[in-house]
Amino acid sequence: MADSSSERVAERKRHSFFVNFFIRLLKEKPLGTFGLVITLLLLFTGIFADFIAPYGVNEMYKEHLLEPPSAQFWLGTDNVGRDMLTRVIYGARVSVIVGLAASLFATIGSTIIGILCGYIGGKFDLIVQRAVDAWMCLPGLVVMIIIISGIGAGILPVIVVLGLSWSLIGSRIVRSAVFGIKENVYMAAAEAIGCSRTRIITRHILPNIMAPTIILFTTRVPAAIMTEASLSFLGFGIPAPLPSWGGMLSGSGRSYMYLAPWIAIWSGLALAITVYGINMFGDAMRDLLDPRLRGGAGRYGVRRLKKEAKEESESSVPEGSTKQ
Amino acid sequence: MRNYIIRRLSLVIPTALIVSLVTFFLIQIIPGDVIDSLQRQSYDIEFDRAAMEKALGIDAPIMVQYGRWLGVAPQMDGSFSGIFQGNLGYSWLKNKSVLELVAAKWPVTLELGLMALIIAQLIALPIGIFSALRQDTWGDYIGRTFAILCISIPGFWLATMAIVFPSIWWGYMPPIMLIKFTDDPIGNLRMFIGPALILGMSMAGITMRMTRTMMLEVLRQDYIRTAWAKGLRERLVVMRHALKNALIPVVTIVGLQMPLMIGGSVIIEQIFSLPGMGRLGLSAVINRDEPLVRGTVLIFAVFLVLINLMVDLTYGFLDPRVHYK
Predict the structure, then answer these.
(1) pTM higher than 0.95 for the full model?
(2) What is the ipTM of this complex?
(3) Domains of chain A in sequence order
(4) Does A207 touch chain B (CB under 8 A)?
(5) Per-residue confidence at B127, pLDDT binned at 50, 70, 90?
């Protein structure tokens, strides 16, 4: 058994990290693969919105106000005669931009703050972490609303506010990951042979905290999309003529929803599917990347072990093994 | 343990100081002030700007204003009356003290939040445990899909649908006036149950996932194998040995969810027109009512500081392995 598993490890090592990751995703995580498909679909819709959308984003058809879904307007029209399908497609673009940019901002910010706190430690860590403490004690959404009403609504302000705020909060995760690897022998070895701080950080710390950092990023993307929608819904996110999934549910359309309920349905549905897909993918990714969740042989892993043992004994029967 | 409590409590002081600084100066970044906003609303009257600034006390240097707000600098009449004296100032627009306004609103938010919290745990724990016990079966997939659905469905969308469709189908509208619990307990609960369910949904999803993950981790521990080897019944192993240990990090997650709950309640209160703290704060931001904005943010923050403190301290009681040095 030991031989075959070590063979399996050797076999896995032949592929690069990402190829290996995708093979395992496809094999082991059907829901994660489904999530990946949704995520790719969202990316595609966001990037090629101009080509997919049947009408212009702010084109108004004055003779088609509040029309229910039809062959001409697949998802109906809103109160100023804009095609809902087009609005939802362009909304994907806003979500993609905010989701990716804010998460990237937040993850890079968290990594920088987290590494500095974890590696330098001492007084610096103590002071920065008190700021993080304080920030985590503030009601996030309310604070974002106040800041955005100060600097003005728009895509960039939302990205900056989300990015900055989550840089601080996420730094906790990176910091504890750094603390986790700090005691390893290779860190002492690197210091002993006189590596510079920059080299230690870039070559020894950074690669070893990649897994939690990637997980942090994937959990931030759906959260950023959701928070942007919430802010836009309250009127503090993406300003009106721009199509945002949250904004479509608020503002002038809101009073017409009783007459034309389809205004209320589509953007929220798109948002739910998107966040669902990214979450599913992120979840599968965490399962594959987090070493603590890999394998294991508790009672509840027994079924798989039994299966493997069975396969093994079957394969070893021709050799005349007596293993049961 | 006692040393830990003292050390943990002493950490609250810098946190509280930074919270008060951020709360006070945050609103300063908004260009324009209440006088501009009032001037826009009544364009036929010319305001005496200097007199109004003096009356509101915003002509003083900003650090003096901060000191007055905290209660360490004398007010205009020379008395000390700020946070340290238990006074959060006076609303600029409503002619009432901030505490008075908050006192009228917080029971609504608390009831909404508590109900959401209870509903979330009632949904999350059983499904989370079930999911872990039947890992990688169809039951598990359904449980996990449900959990992620709970997180993925935007509350404001579901709330909007919950208002729009009943009114179209059955002509039902949620009550506009708040039904007080003391007047009509059933009506009050009926009014809150929908909003609380929607608010608790995302929390239920997150707790469910956390419960599942922790149960899986705990079920692989040696002491669980020992429990099985002793021939204990499944019920005993799961409830006594596994669940008790698995729930420790879940407590933290529930604590960490509180800021999201507050954000959610701002939205839910707005949609269902529940007169709570969230609506109070939001209208204060829109009206530039600085003392009221500061007051609501500060009260939310104090609540969160206390929750975090509680979570940290309960950790020690729940998990005897945690040693505080």
Answers:
(1) no
(2) 0.84
(3) 24-56+66-292 (1.10.3720.10)
(4) no
(5) very high
